[in-house]
Automatic annotation (TrEMBL):
Main location: cytoplasm
Protein's name according to its UniProt entry: Ribokinase
Originating species: Paenibacillus typhae
Catalytic activity as recorded in UniProt: D-tagatofuranose 6-phosphate + ATP = D-tagatofuranose 1,6-bisphosphate + ADP + H(+); D-ribose + ATP = D-ribose 5-phosphate + ADP + H(+)
Pathway the protein acts in: Carbohydrate metabolism; D-ribose degradation; D-ribose 5-phosphate from beta-D-ribopyranose: step 2/2; Carbohydrate metabolism; D-tagatose 6-phosphate degradation; D-glyceraldehyde 3-phosphate and glycerone phosphate from D-tagatose 6-phosphate: step 1/2
Gene: rbsK
Protein residues bound to ATP: N182, T218, L219, G220, S221, K222, G223, G249, D250, N274
Amino acid sequence: GIVIIGSLNMDMVVRTSRAPEAGETLFGQAFALSPGGKGANQAAAAARLGAEVTMIGRVGKDGFGRELLEVMRQEGVHTDYIGQSETQATGVASIVVDEEGENRIIVVPGANLEMGREDIAALEPVIRQAEMVVMQLETDLSMCEQAASMAHSHGIPVILNPAPARVLTDELLQHVAYLTPNETEAGILAGMAVNSIADAEQAARLLLQKGVENIIVTLGSKGALIVNHAGSRHIPGFPVQAVDTVAAGDSFNGALAYQLTSGKTLTEAVRFANAVGALAVGKQGAIPSLPQLAEVEQFLKE
Ligand code: ADP
C-alpha cells in the first residue's frame, strides 16, 4: 500500500468576486468549512481511486480533529497512525477563492508541526512495509528528512510534493524518487524564475543535478513536464472549465502514487494524474472535488 505522511487541516473557504486590498473589507458570496490539508487530500485522492492508503499525521483533540479523522475513515484511509495532540489545535487553512477560481491560502499548522523525528523512528515498522511513501511540506521539515531517509534506506520510492515551497537540502533531494513541484515551487527550489515550460525544464535540470531521480513539474492547465536522466517530456493537460483550483496538485499527487504502485509507467501515470487534476479543478472543494476511478476512466475515453 501507499503510506502518506502529511498534514490534515480544516479548510475555511471564503468565496469572493475579488480578494480584498490591505485594510479593505468586502462582502463575500459564500463560506464553507471543508476537510483538507495536503496530506489528507492526497490520501483521499489515492483512496478514491482504489489504492490502499495509510495516513501518518496529527490532529488536535478538538471538533475539527474528530471531523477530519471521521472523513479519512469514510474515504477508506487507514487512520491508526493519525495521532491526537494533547496541546496543539488541529491545523486550519484560511482560503480565499476569487471569481477566476484563483486561491490565496494561509495555513496555521498547529498539531501538524508536532510530528517529529521520534515519531517517524517509532513508525519504522509501518513505513518499511510501504510500496511508496508520499510527503508534502506542511509538516516539520526535519521529520520529512528523517522519513525520506528511512524510506530510501529500505528501497521504498518517495514522492515529495514540495508544497508550500521551501529550500531543501541536497541530502533530502537525494532521497526523493519523484519530486512534484508546480511552476512557482520549481522556481523557488531551483532559485530562478519559472514563467514557461522552457524555464520549468531548466529548473528541473538543476534539481536533477542535486540527485532527485524524476522531477514532474505540474503546469496547471498545460499539464505536466517530466524530467529525468532519460530526457524531458511534456504531457499535455486536459481542457476543462476551472471552477476551483483547490487540491489540483493534491489530486495529481494522489493519482500519481496510485498509478505508480499499480505498475504503470511514469508517462502513463502522469497522463492519468493530469486527468484527475482536471476533474478536481472542475468541481468545488478539496476532498469533495476528488474523482472516483470510474469517473477518470470515463473521462479518458471521451
Ligand atoms: P497546484 O494546484 O499545486 O498549483 P497545478 O496548478 O500545476 O498545481 O495543477 C496540478 C495539476 O492539475 C496540473 O498538472 C494539471 O494536471 C491539473 N490542472 C490544474 N489546473 C488545471 C486546469 N485549469 N485545467 C486542466 N487541468 C488542470
